[in-house]
Design brief:
- With 260 residues, the protein is of the alpha+beta class.
- The chain has 6 helices and 10 strands, in the order αβαββαβααββββαββ.
- Helix 1 (2-23) runs antiparallel to helix 4.
């Protein structure tokens, strides 16, 4: 019986991987490239950012360093980095700094996520990032996909750091939380900035405060003012509207680049 259960689990994992590649099909299928010529090390362009590259460490939903992260640095296309510099200058006038969790992400890292998500028994970090979800639904609900906008080089995950308190601004939830609590419209309307406090979308009845909702909107407004677009499911995730490589997926590792 034990052997039959193992075989069934193996087959299930295989089916999940196939579903991932077929369901997440919005991205163009192209061979990843190693070309770094249009990328920069973010701190060379935006020296005021704070880096906390989560996938270089172990405090992330995988629970280990992710393939492709060789150094705790952030890379972006030149165009995206220049736009983020404008965001940084903007928020610094209001007493904040940008704190970066992730920027460019190589395809090898996305492949690591896919393998992890197919390994259903590995739930080491479930209490911290997806306590309300069974891991088996992560592909179906598109928390994990075979392609990522980060791999195109003009997407960034970030938050605000309050220079007065010397702490991150309280956003009412952690980066990479898998659930509706991460949606920009959770407990409010991002278009009207109206706070509703409605936590009905949360499977555990969670809510965020009006201050936490407002803090999310401060970050969102600054990013939108300078040419980025928001993601409807993650308050921390933004992509340059005029991204230079909308159909290209890169695969060079994350490490310091030589200044050009």
């Amino acid at each position: 019986m034990k052997q039959k259960n193992l075989i069934a689990l193996f087959l299930l994992c295989g089916v999940i991987v196939v579903l991932c590649f077929t369901k997440c099909k919005k991205s163009v299928s192209v061979s990843p490239t190693e070309d770094t010529s249009q990328f920069v090390t973010l701190t060379d362009v935006v020296p005021d950012v704070i880096l906390e590259i989560r996938y270089f460490g172990t405090y992330n939903f995988v629970g280990q360093r992710v393939d492709g992260y060789l150094e705790p640095t952030a890379l972006l296309t030149k165009r995206a980095a220049d736009s983020l510099r404008a965001v940084s200058d903007d928020v610094m006038r209001h007493g904040y700094r940008l704190k970066i969790y992730d920027a460019y992400r190589p395809q090898m890292s996305v492949d690591h996520f896919v393998r992890w998500a197919a390994d259903i028994p590995d739930t080491l970090m479930k209490p911290y990032f997806y306590p309300d979800l069974d891991k088996i639904v992560l592909f179906d609900q598109e928390y994990i996909c075979a392609k990522s906008g980060h791999t195109r080089g003009s997407t960034v995950d970030l938050t605000l750091f309050d220079m007065a308190t010397e702490k991150e601004l309280d956003m009412g939830g952690t980066f990479d939380w898998f659930g509706p609590e991460s949606h920009p419209d959770f407990c409010g309307n991002p278009e009207t900035l109206e706070y509703t406090g409605d936590g009905s979308k949360s499977p555990a009845g969670r809510t965020i405060t009006s201050e936490q909702f407002y803090n999310r909107m401060v970050l969102r407004a600054a990013m939108l003012r300078h040419g980025f677009k928001a993601m409807p499911t993650e308050w921390w995730h933004f992509t340059l509207k005029d991204e230079p490589f909308p159909d290209t997926y890169f695969n060079f590792p994350v490490k310091q680049l030589e200044k050009k």
